Amino acid sequence: MQATTIKLDPKLHSSLRRMKPRALTLTAFVRELVACEEKRRALEEAAEAYHALLAAHRDEAAWLAAWEAAPLAEAPGAKRRRG
């Protein structure tokens, strides 16, 4: 892992120290914050790409609307026996 030093102004440093859980070091806490932000941005990009896909492919959007309208919370009806 590459070591990097980041300079923080005293106000931000104090704020981070108050925010972090006691079980984490400040370095670990900042690492988690950066990882969470990276994941949030990746998910945002994926959502934008999916919205673009739905706009470009109306059949996909229609299929999704049909899926959302399906009564999935209800138990399926009982099958009748032939006999």
Explain how this protein is built.
With 83 residues, the protein is mainly α. The chain has one domain. The chain has three helices and no strands. It is elongated, with a radius of gyration of 24 Å. The protein starts with 9 loop residues before the first helix and ends in a 14-residue tail after the last helix. The model has no long low-confidence stretch (mean pLDDT 91).
Sheet having the most strands: none
Helix content: 55-70%
Overall mean confidence score, pLDDT: 91
From the helix content, strand content and strand pairing, which structural class follows? mainly alpha
CA-based gyration radius: 24 Å
- Low-confidence sequence ranges: none
Oligomer: single chain
> So what's the overall shape?
elongated
How many helix segments? 3
- Written as H for each helix and E for each strand, in order along the chain, the element string is HHH
What's the domain count?
A: 1
The total count of strands amounts to 0
| Beta-strand content bin | under 5%
Give the distance, in angstroms, between the N- and C-terminal Cα atoms: 70 Å
